[in-house]
TrEMBL record, chain A:
One Pfam family hit: Peripla_BP_4
Lineage summary: Bacteria, Bacillati, Actinomycetota, Actinomycetes, Micromonosporales
InterPro entries the record matches: Peripla_BP_I, SBP_2_dom
Organism: Micromonospora acroterricola
Record protein name field: ABC transporter substrate-binding protein
Domain Periplasmic binding protein: 43-303
From TrEMBL, chain B:
Listed name of the protein: Autoinducer 2 import system permease protein LsrD
Broad class of the protein's primary localization: membrane
Transmembrane segments: 32-49, 69-89, 96-117, 123-144, 151-172, 192-215, 242-261, 273-291, 298-318, 324-343
Any GO CC annotation of this UniProt entry: plasma membrane
Pfam families: BPD_transp_2
GO MF terms held by the record: transmembrane transporter activity
Keywords: Cell inner membrane, Cell membrane, Membrane, Transmembrane, Transmembrane helix, Transport
Upper taxonomic lineage: Bacteria, Bacillati, Actinomycetota, Actinomycetes, Micromonosporales
Amino acid sequence: MTIGVTARGVLGLSMAVALVASAAACSKDSAEPAAGGGGTGSVGVDLPRADSDFWNAYASYITPKAGEVGVELTAQTNSQNDIQKVISNVDSLVTQGAKALVIAPQDTGAIGPKLDELAQKKIPVVSVDTRPDNGSVYMVVRADNRAYGTKACEFLGEKLGGRGKVIEFQGALSSINGRDRSEAFKECMTTKFPGITVFEEPTEWEGSKAQAALETRLSTDPDIKGVYMQAGGVFLDPTLQVLKQRKLLVPPTDPRHIFIVSNDGIPQELDAIRKGEIDATVSQPADAYAQYGLYWARQAMEGVTPKEGPTDHGSSVIKLPNGYEDQLPAPLITKDNVDDPALWGNKK
Amino acid sequence: MSETLAVGAPEAPQRPPRPTGRPSKRLRLARLRDLALVPPIIALLIYGYTLKPDVFLTKSYLVDTVLKYQTELALVVLAEALVLIVGKFDLSLESVVGIAPAVAVFLVVGQTSMLGAPWPTWTVLPVALAFGALIGVFNGLLVVRFKLSAFIVTLAMLIALRGLQLAIVGGATISNLANRIPTIDNLGSLRILTVPLSIWIVVVAFAVGVVVLGYTRFGRSIYAVGGNADAARAAGIRVERVIWVTFIVAGALAALAGLMLSARLGSVAANQGNGMIFTVFAAAVIGGISLDGGKGSLVGALTGVVLLGLIQNVLTLAQVKPDQIQAVNGLVILVALVLARLTSGKAQD
C-alpha cells in the first residue's frame, strides 16, 4: 500500500511534466500575420537564452545595431533554450507585425517545419549562430564552429610541440555548436598531432562538471599540459580555481605551465589573457552576429537576393541547400592581439 | 490515507510501547537499511582501484576529487531529506542554490546601488543564509497557512526563483569572486587538518542532523508528523510549526550549499543549481528516504550521495564515451539499487 502512495507521487510528477509540455505544445498552432501591425517592415528578434554571458552580450547589441543598420524592431522575445518556445515566440512576433525574423534556434533539427511555414507566408528568416538542418532560411549568420575546434587544436598542438596530454571540456553533445567544436578538435588532433592524448570530458555546459573532471584528471595524470574549453563563460572561473589551488597558475615560461585555450571571447577571458592566466581564446563575434543578422533581415525585406562570394565586411557567403550562409571570421586572440580595439570583448 | 502511512511508518512514535524484544530487532533492521548501499560503494571502490591502482584509494584522491565535489549535493540532500521525512516536498531548493548566493554576492560586488549596495564583503554568508531561510518562510506560509500542495507550490517557486535570479543579475555570470570576497575564497580553498572546509561543514551538518532527528523532541516530532500528521496532532505536536520550521531550515541549508558551490567555482553562474533537484531526489531516495514521509535516515541519505559521487567519478576515470555516459550512469545506479536490495535482503519502498 505504501507503494501505492509512492506511485501516486510519481504519477503526480509525470502529470505535472506532461501538463507543462502540453502547455508549450499548444502554442504550436500557427498565428496569422496581422495586417499592418508595426508599420513598414519591422524585424522580430528571438534570443535563444538568458543565462549565458555570450548571449547576453549579443542581446545587448541588438537595439544599438538596429539603429545602425536602420531597421525597426517589432519586439524581442527569449526562448530560454526551448524549441517549443522558439516556435511560439515566432508566432507571437509575426502576429505583432514582424516582416522578417532574426532567430537563433539551438535545436537545429526541430525548427525546419516552422521555417517552411514562414517561407510560405513570405517572411524571411535569418538564423544566427546555428544552421538549421532543413527548412528554408534566407541567411545563416554564424562563425564556423568547426574552425573554433581546429584553431584551438592547432594552438595547443604547437605550444605542446605535438606531444603530451590535453583535457577538453565539451559542451552539450545535443547542441550543434558543441558537436562541431568537438568533432573538429578531435579530427585535427588525430590527423595533425597524433602524439597528443586527448581526454574528452562531457560537461553539458556546466562549470561544476568540468571542474570535477579536471580535478580527477589532474590526480590521475598530473602531466596534463593543455586545456581546451569550449566556452569561456561557464568554464573559466572553475578551471582557474582548480589550477590556483594546485598552484599551477604559472607563466608560460615555467615548465609546469598548462596551456589553456578557450572559446567565446567575452571580456573576462580577455582579462585572463592579459593577466597570463589563460593563453588564447577564439572570439565568437557577438556584435557581428547582431549587426549582420539585422543587416541581412533588412536586405531580405528590400528584396535583395544574396550573392555567393566575399562580402564587404570581411566574410564570405556560401550557398546552402536551404538558403545561404554568411560565414563571419572568428579570430584567435592571444597575448599579442588581446588589446585590439576591434574585438567586441574590448568594447563598451 | 492516514492508515496507509501509519502502517508504512514503524518509526512513528504514536505507537504504544512494544513488549520487550521488538525494539532491538526493529533497530537492527533500521540500521541495516542505513548500510544497504555500502556493498555497491565497496564494489565501486574496488572497480576504481583496478582502473588506477596507484592513486585511487589514496586519501588525497578520495577527498579532493570525489568527496569535495559532493559537498553541495550532500547539503541539499540533507535539506530535502528533512522535508521528505516531514511528509512534504521542496523542489525549489535547486533554485535557492542559485539565487541565494547570487543575491548575497550581487549586493556586495554587483553594479547597483539598490538597498545601499555595495555591502561589506562579510555580509555574504549571513545574507545568503537569511535569504534561503526567507524562501523557506514563504514556502511554509503557502503550504501550512494556505494549505496548498507542497509539490505544486515549490514547483512554481523553482521557476519563479530561477527567473528572479536571471532578472537580478541580468543573466550574467558573476565571476572572479575568489579575489574579491574573502568569505568565498575561504569557503572554496581553506583546509582544516588537510581536509577542505566544505567537507567539514557537511560532516558537522549531518552530525547535528542525526543528533537532532534521533535524540530531540523536535527531531522525533518531524518523524511523527511525516508518519501520520493527524496522530501527531492528537499527540499534542504542533504539526504546522514543525513543517514550517523544516522548510526554513531546508532553505537555509540549500543557501549554504549554493554559497559553497559558488566558492568552489569562483563564480555564480546564472544557471547554478539548474536541474540539480533530480540528483537530490535520486540520492535521497536511493539512500532510503521514503517519498511518503516519516521514514528514512540521514546516514542512509549520505550514503546515497557518496554512491552517486563515486559513480560519477569512476565513469570519468573509465573514460566512458561522452555520448554514452548518461545512459551508463543510469544503468549503474540501477545495478547499485539491485545490489543493495540483494545484500540487505529488505524490500525497498
